[in-house]
């Protein structure tokens, strides 16, 4: 087991759950709210967490009404549960959705609702001023890296759009990376979340801002995903692969503090409008987005960055003539079926999706600028 900070305190390895419980006990918290979803509850992972907390005489309440793509309603119901049970700390158990909701509850525990007023794009982060409860994050998937991130994403009722809440104080106090908690993850979800981690790292590396620290972390994260994701998909019980994927996901999230790009802008409307899993949406749109980027990259630095990522695939034996083709090989190897049409996306909705994607400001840190027509063309190519 390993412990380190960057800046979130991280515990990596088997036994990390018990180590976290002991650490929480020392803080003297009275009642923790465990934020999770019904699937985590059904497969017994929430019970494992409660057992660890009980062994340290720590009281807890479970809130499991988190949707796969979190809704404003989840935040409202969650903060009511937090208040009704006199909670003073938060534990997020699950994938990025549970962590997104837990972070909004952290805001609402110290500030009045509704959550919409804290929308970062409208300057709402400046309203986050009050003390907030500690948040402990336990990922059960290896993709979002939200356990080390300072952002939450929720679909607001009024707009039906994914909205970002961003503040340094939303970063969890502690992240627990215990590989056995991800060992039961189905192959399809392992693949989708793993491609989410890869997309985070790649878009961060391609983002134009100067940040050599994030660049180094992003490169290492991509190397780990390309090496270990196929192993985790082939043998879900391989705890070494699972541990390395958890670490790669956290590293990808650290790296994307530098920025993301067009893939995420394209993916967000699919989740908001049709409930498409975020990682799967990224995987479906990544190759055609890369094709546009490779075609438009004209600066020496841009072309070198593309070569750097292509070399990672070559070193791992996924050799192809271009980065796009190498990425397709990885996606095929982990068993993701391509095609927006196969996900039930109506062809007639593509222009509407392009409007929503262009309104999503994340593409502004893409390696190359894109227009609405560019985004529509990618949707059509990915269809």
SSE inventory with pairings:
Blueprint: E1 2-5, E2 9-12, H1 16-27, E3 31-35, H2 38-42, H3 45-55, E4 59-63, H4 72-84, E5 89-94, H5 96-110, E6 135-139, E7 151-155, E8 162-166, E9 174-177, H6 187-206, H7 212-234, H8 239-255, H9 262-274, H10 278-296, H11 300-315, H12 323-333, H13 350-359, H14 372-382
Parallel strand pairs: 2-9, 3-4, 3-5, 5-6, 6-9
Antiparallel strand pairs: 1-2, 7-8
Describe the structure.
The chain has 383 residues and is an alpha/beta fold. It has two domains: 180 residues, Rossmann fold (3-Layer(aba) Sandwich), CATH 3.40.50.1970; 197 residues, Dehydroquinate synthase-like, alpha domain (Up-down Bundle). Helices cover 51% and strands 11% of the residues. A seven-stranded mixed sheet has the order 1-2-9-6-5-3-4, with helices on both faces. Strand 7 and strand 8 form a beta hairpin. The longest helix is centred in the middle third of the chain and has 23 residues. The protein is globular, with a radius of gyration of 20 Å. The N and C termini lie far apart (44 Å).
């Amino acid at each position: 087991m390993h412990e380190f900070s960057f800046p979130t305190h991280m515990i990596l390895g088997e036994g990390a759950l018990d180590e976290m419980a002991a650490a929480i006990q020392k803080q003297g918290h009275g009642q923790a709210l465990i934020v999770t979803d019904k699937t985590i509850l059904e497969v017994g992972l929430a019970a494992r967490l409660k057992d660890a907390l009980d062994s340290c005489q720590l009281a807890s309440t479970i809130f499991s009404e988190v949707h796969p793509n979190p809704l404003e309603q989840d935040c409202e119901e969650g903060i009511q549960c937090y208040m009704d049970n006199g909670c003073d700390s938060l534990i997020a158990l699950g994938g990025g959705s549970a962590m997104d909701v837990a972070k909004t509850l952290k805001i609402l525990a110290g500030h009045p609702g509704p959550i919409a007023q804290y929308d970062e794009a409208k300057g709402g982060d400046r309203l986050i001023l009050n003390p907030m409860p500690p948040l402990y994050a336990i990922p059960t998937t290896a993709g979002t890296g939200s356990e080390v991130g300072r952002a939450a994403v929720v679909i607001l009722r009024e707009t039906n759009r994914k909205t970002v809440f961003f503040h340094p104080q939303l970063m969890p106090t502690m992240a627990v990376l215990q590989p056995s908690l991800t060992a039961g993850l189905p192959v399809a979800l392992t693949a989708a979340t793993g491609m989410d981690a890869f997309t985070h790292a790649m878009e961060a590396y391609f983002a134009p801002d100067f940040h050599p620290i994030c660049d180094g972390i992003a490169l290492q994260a991509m190397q780990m995903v390309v090496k270990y994701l196929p192993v985790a998909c082939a043998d879900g019980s391989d705890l070494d692969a699972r541990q390395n994927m958890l670490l790669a996901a956290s590293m990808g999230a650290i790296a994307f503090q530098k920025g993301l790009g067009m893939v995420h802008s394209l993916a967000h409307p699919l989740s908001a409008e049709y409930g498409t899993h975020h990682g799967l949406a990224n995987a479906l749109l990544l190759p055609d987005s890369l094709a546009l980027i490779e075609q438009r990259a004209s600066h020496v630095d841009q072309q070198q960055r593309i070569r750097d990522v292509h070399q990672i695939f070559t070193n791992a034996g996924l050799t192809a003539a271009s980065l796009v083709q190498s990425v397709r090989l990885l996606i095929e190897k982990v068993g993701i079926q391509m095609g927006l049409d196969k996900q039930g996306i109506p062809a007639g909705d593509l222009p509407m999706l392009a409007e929503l994607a262009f309104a999503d400001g994340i593409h502004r840190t893409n390696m190359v600028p894109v227009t609405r027509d560019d985004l529509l063309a990618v949707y059509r190519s990915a269809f």
